[in-house]
Amino acid sequence: MRPESSATGPQPSSTVRRMKEYHPPLGDRSGLRLDFNENTFACSPRVLDALGRISRGDLTRYPEREPVERRVAQHLGLDPAQVLLTNGVDEAIHVLCQTYLDEGAEMLLPVPTYTMYEVYASGTPARIIRVPAETGFRFPLAALLAAITPATRLIAIANPNSPTGQVARREELLQIANAAPHAAVLVDEAYFHFHGETVLDCIGQPPNVIVARTFSKAYGLAGLRLGVLCAPQAQMQWMRRAISPYSVNSVALACLTAAIDDEDYVRWYTGEVLAARTVFEAALRRLGMLYVPSQANFVLVNVGPTHRDFVTAMRARNVLVRDRSSDPGCDGWVRITIGTQEQTQQGIAALEQSLAAIGWVPSAAAVSGGPSR
Fold first, then answer.
1. pTM (two decimals)
2. Which domains, from first to last, does the chain contain?
């Protein structure tokens, strides 16, 4: 290999230099993966059948997104002109930031929340306005409304929110949209299947509501990178201009129809997670742990100063969990994904053993029966 020249070489743009870095903690993820909020079991068996039908010749052609978008639109009860498939919701966020954020614009972001909103927004010249959650990580409606200005161009709301599992009520989301008619209001419903409430039926009225969904969670297609943006046609025309025409690959498109057609499988997996979440939260109460009641497929748990030791102890027992202590207001909090009921029993056993191993004791609030935030 030739040694690199000592010359400075080309310099990145000022936009790239100021972008927030994100380094997913991947590496060795063997064991029970309760760290990334993925489907912890498997995708529908129909997806494997669809993969088996892909021929060598199919892979020689550029992907055609439009026919599958028509099927997804039918599944969601929307017009195909209102639907845009993306390379995961990450690309959807990137497209929205490129579409709406320019010099002098502001993006409103309730925090803590999904990291990639800020990553992609930081790649634009816009100003990011962070709005802290209320006590107990409750949705900061009043503060968010007060932060709206004529410069507001994008408001990003994960609902349910990650890492907290908290939600904004439908009427609150519509109140925000009506208060900021000059801004795009993204409602990221990545965890919709575990919550059940949506504003998808509001696409077009009010005209600034945009909904994102993912096929990585309940559908179990995280490895294929599939998401969808739903927006009024008047707004969608600009998003289509900002996105690559071939960002969703042919293999993903071939599998997506099979996945959404198997509604029985999605209902089964969602039912498993909801039942397991109830069992897991009951175990947390029994152990005296503070947690945030969740409407998603994960629970945010307060471990306190021993959070790093706890994550290490869980890994030693082949269970991966996600330390969220670096998120705003989350010092000492760890997020734990909920899988099937059988997996959850395994997770609870590892939890009990790990707490004993690190000498963890319940906080004063837990011992006194204080609120689970």
1. 0.94
2. 15-39+264-359 (3.90.1150.10), 47-261 (3.40.640.10)
